Amino acid sequence: MDKLVIEGGSRLAGEVRISGAKNAALPILCAALLSTEPLVLENVPDLNDIGTMLALLAQMGVRVTREGSTVSLDASTLDNPTAPYEMVKTMRASILVLGPLVARCGIAKVSLPGGCAIGARPVDQHIKGLQAMGAEVSVEHGYVQARVSQLKGARLFTDMVTVTGTENLMMAACLADGETVIENAAREPEVVDLAQCLSAMGARISGAGTDVIRIRGVDRLHGARHRIMPDRIETGTFLCAAAATGGEVRLLGTSTGYLDAVVDKLMDAGCDIVSEKTPQHEAIVLRAPARLKAVSIRTSPYPAFPTDMQAQFMAINCVAEGSAVIRETIFENRFMHAVELIRLGADIKIDGNTAFVTGVQRLQGATVMATDLRASASLVVAGLVAEGETHVERIYHLDRGYEHIEAKLTGLGARIRREKA
Ligand code: UD1
Q1: Residue having the nearest C-alpha atom to atom 1 of ligand 1
Q2: Which of 203, 305, 326, 403 has the fewest Cβ atoms surrounding its Cβ within 10 A?
């Protein structure tokens, strides 16, 4: 198992290119299941989660080819609408094949994803929505089994805002008979990117990006070419890393438009952030003060502050001036990084879903363990500002969602290397 060894204390400076968004690419890869014609996707990041999804689609009979960051998917040969436990257990987002499979094949067998470190994360809303569209859905032997002769448009209301739930139901509704209305829909930019790809394939969708999405079903979708949006969480993570080190960076191929809540908080912390936009080029420039001011955050669905940036903000608050209150409202167990940050000398007290962080002058390097994807990112940010060496173990979590992270950070002047643990 690999680990990252970080020697803290370098100020990050320079330019780095932001990759395509993992959370947009995953549902959009599944959209290929809806058509018998090829879907060509550009700016697909090279990540373990993407590899898992491509392997899952391939074992269903989809022909997958990859050249650099361009992936072509041809689902005309789809013959096995099944997602086995062995593949699903490593990646919850595999549930995103359910909606497209039922819509296209009228049958699907998809393993339940099970729990994950950050919380129970059930898929009841995905199932409830498909049932409202006329599918017979049962959960047997750990598998969601769905069957329908033809999905029917319906009015769907989810009990909570769910990102992959909205995406699954939006994809299913594209081939349903009649109009589907998803109320309480997720407004995340990745939902909008998926809607744009589906529209390019011939789907009739309006309202993506608001909490009411309307989909008028069509008989078939055709092939298309689509470019995946930039990864707003990778963007936010690099902004935090640079900010914590008092750095100055230019992030290429990304935009502040996707992360107003994060940018606002970094400005409150004392950073100067400017967007650059020309017809050829988009970038974000951040200049950080020598020491940040502590900033309180509360996670909520988009456009509020993203839960996927909570851990990184906990890390920057650990060395900021003053105290911050961090409230996590999306996942019930998403403070596992706190105990690891405390091992680095952070002053954090947890009470239920609230963390109280008081900034210290400096953290000290130690061995810490990554527990989930974004927790890992927070440990890297903390390692960059800790005195001496920090060893981050179990970085397979990090490889699920950050493309070439140590190479990108090295390019900005960090002293970081990968070693066998
Ligand atoms: C997506 C993101 C993930 C992000 C999360 C919240 C992808 C691939 N992953 O995950 O990075 O952290 O949104 O922004 O896009 N819930 C239910 N029943 C359901 C569905 C959800 O109870 O059927 C609950 C979840 O347990 C959670 C909340 O709803 O407490 C929101 O989860 P959801 O938006 O569905 O997260 P994901 O789509 O899995």
Answers
A1: 163
A2: 403
Ligand 1 nearest-atom number relative to CA 373 = 11
Tokens 């608001």 correspond to 210
Provide the Cα torsion 396, 401, 403, 405; round to 10°.
Answer: -60
Q: How confident is the model at residue 279 (pLDDT cuts 50, 70, 90)?
A: confident
DSSP-assigned letters across all residues of 252-308 = ES--GGG-HHHHHHHHHTT-EEEEEE-SS-EEEEEE--SSPBP--EEB-STTSB-GG
Give me the helix-helix angle, 22-31 and 98-105, nearest 10°.
Answer: 10
- Could you identify the atom of ligand 1 that is nearest to the CA of residue 330? 30
Q: Which of 330, 337, 373 should be mutated for ligand 1, with most atoms under 8 A from CB? A: 330
Q: State pLDDT tens for residues 133-154.
A: 999 999 999 999 999 999 999 9
Residue % of the chain over a pLDDT of 70 = 98
Residues labelled catalytic? 116
Question: Which residue in the block uniquely carries the two structure tokens 């013959």?
Answer: 79
**How many Å lie between the centroid of ligand 1 and the Cα of residue 402?**
19
Probe residue for ligand 1, chosen from 90, 163, 188, 337 as the CB with the greatest number of ligand atoms within 8 Å: 163
Q: Reply yes or no: is the peptide bond before residue 303 cis, omega within 30 of 0.
A: yes
Q: Which ligand 1 atom lies nearest to the CA of residue 306?
A: 14
Closest residue by CA, ligand 1 atom 11: 308
Residue 259 tokens read as 């992360």
Contact (CB, 8 A) for 197 and 28: yes
Report the atom number in ligand 1 closest to the C-alpha of 27.
Answer: 8
Query: What confidence tens digit (pLDDT) does each residue in 182-215 have?
Result: 999 999 999 999 999 999 999 999 999 999 999 9
The encoded tokens of residue 41 equal 């996707």
Q: What pLDDT shows up at residue 278?
A: 86
Q: How far is the CA of 121 from the centre of ligand 1 (A)?
A: 7
- Residue 115's pLDDT is 53
What b-and-e string marks burial along 327-355, b requiring 16 or more CB atoms within 10 Å of the CB? ebbbbeebbbbbebbbbbbbebeeeebeb
Residues in contact with ligand 1 by the CB-under-6-Å rule are: 23, 26, 92-93, 119-126, 160, 162-165, 190, 307-308, 330-331
Burial class (CB in 10 A: 0-12, 13-18, 19+), 209: middle
